[in-house]
Amino acid sequence: MTREIVLDTETTGLSPLTGDRIVEIGCVELFNHIPSGRQFHRYINPGRPMPEEAFRVHGLSDEFLADKPTFAEVGREFLEFVGDATLVIHNAAFDISFLNYELERCALPTIRNGVIDTVELAHERHPGARVSLDALCKHYGIDNSRRVVHGALLDAEILSEVYLELIGGRQVAFALVEEITGGGIEITAGAYVAARRPEPLPRRITDEEIAAHEALIASLGEGAIWSMYLDKVERPGRTGLSLGTI
Questions:
Q1: Among 166, 193, 222, 242, which residue's Cβ finds the most Cβ atoms within 10 Å?
Q2: Taking the model in full, what pTM does it have?
């Protein structure tokens, strides 16, 4: 099964190189693009004052963060949750730069996971369109009314919905996946995209069968309801519905 982590952070500013720090991490776990229900969410004391412009973005004050753990106290737990999963991030370079800066400060391994940047994915899907999270929510009809201010976990939850739409949306269907667990078989919900046949199936009825069917319908009289389907019968050299699909 494919494991992905949709991730977002909130920070004190725009760059760790100028002393800015992470103040919130939010992660949502996906299996085969379906939320598993597992999340990782921590508020973090940055060890520095919160600039007013950053406070206006996410609403996390110095007072609120004062009793929260430092990144050094949650860094290893964060890495254990993420594991080797692919990370799904909106504007990934921003979050990865902050996370790796914090991890290096704590002498912890930096992130080497595969990353899917949903900004790049959105540009590919919608060239020339606005690709902010709010704009994508509007485009796909995703409710983001709770997003009064930015929040890492809330934004990760919303991004998981946006990501599903970017990779196929309603075309992604549920299927049953057999997962071997503890010597037994557990049936779990997964995601499945039906593949197209490389070639259509051959016709399953003969010309003689079609002629017999038409004769039967003719014998029912002009008002027979089946007569309306005769023009949809598949014949050699013609596309349309076959009797097997009517």
A1: 166
A2: 0.69
Give Cβ neighbours of residue 71 (< 8 Å, ≥ 6 apart).
Answer: 21, 22, 44, 102, 105, 106
- Comparing CA positions, the residue from 189, 167, 195 lying closest to residue 177 is 189
The Cα angle at residue 147 between residues 4 and 113, in degrees rounded to 5: 20
Query: How many CA atoms does the CB half-sphere of 221 hold within 13 Å?
Result: 2
- Rounded CA separation 109/94 (Å): 18
pLDDT in tens, 123-180: 999 999 999 999 999 999 998 887 767 899 999 999 999 999 999 875 553 433 344 3
Q: How is residue 235 written in tokens?
A: 């014949």
Count of other CB atoms within 10 angstroms of residue 111: 16
